[in-house]
Design brief:
One of its GO terms (molecular function) is DNA-binding transcription factor activity. This protein is of the alpha+beta class. It folds into 3 domains: 32 residues; 84 residues, Orthogonal Bundle (Arc Repressor Mutant, subunit A); 55 residues, no CATH class. It is 60% helix and 14% strand. The chain is built from 6 helices and 5 strands; from the N terminus they run ααβααββααββ. Strands 1-3-2 form a 3-stranded antiparallel sheet. Helix 3 packs across helix 4. The longest helix is centred in the first third of the chain and has 27 residues. It is globular, with a radius of gyration of 19 Å.
């Protein structure tokens, strides 16, 4: 069982990591990679999972249909994704990575991978792999536990019914409490 002290330390470390990632994404935008972090997430999902419905992309991004629609429209305008009708249901559009999108994603991935390798050059590969595994487990657990404890579905575009108690952050102890 994780102690309160360790949990509080994790909250602080995760906050620091979140701020660092947000900061680095802004720096990457300024370095003219031409793609925002959210764009990269959509392109990576299409690369890994292939052609998808817009609703599947929205669920994966934890955003509404209108948000993903605007994002996909911008990516389509830039020639990075292609849209076609679903042969099983012509009312539904399928989105796939274009060749230009695949090429750009590979370029950005190579550049970002080189940055990460440089940043962790003094780490042992086994330690880095174990850290990646632990961060992946942590992300999965946070999503799973938030859905269960806060009575929300982070993958749904529709808000869940309000829970009887409202979670708030007590800034003095950085613990979530119910009011």
């Amino acid at each position: 069982m994780v102690t309160t002290e360790t949990a509080e330390r994790m909250v602080g470390v995760l906050g620091k990591l979140s701020r660092a990632l947000r900061s680095s994404s802004h720096r990457w935008d300024r370095l003219d990679v031409g793609l925002r972090r959210n764009d990269l997430t959509v392109l990576r999902r299409l690369q890994r999972h292939g052609e998808q419905r817009m609703s599947d992309l929205a669920d994966a991004q934890c955003v509404t249909a209108s948000v993903i629609s605007r994002q996909v429209a911008a990516l389509e305008h830039d020639g990075l994704v292609e849209r076609r009708s679903d042969p099983a249901d012509a009312r539904v559009g399928l989105i796939r990575l274009s060749e230009l999108g695949r090429t750009r994603l590979e370029q950005v991935t190579r550049r970002y991978t080189a940055f990460v390798r440089s940043a962790f050059a003094d780490w042992d590969d086994a330690d880095a792999a174990r850290t990646a595994d632990l961060i992946g487990q942590l992300a999965d657990r946070v999503v799973s536990d938030l859905e269960g404890h806060l009575d929300i579905d982070l993958h749904s575009a529709a808000p869940a019914p309000a829970a009887p108690a409202t979670p708030t952050l007590d800034r003095t102890s950085e613990r979530i409490r119910t009011s």
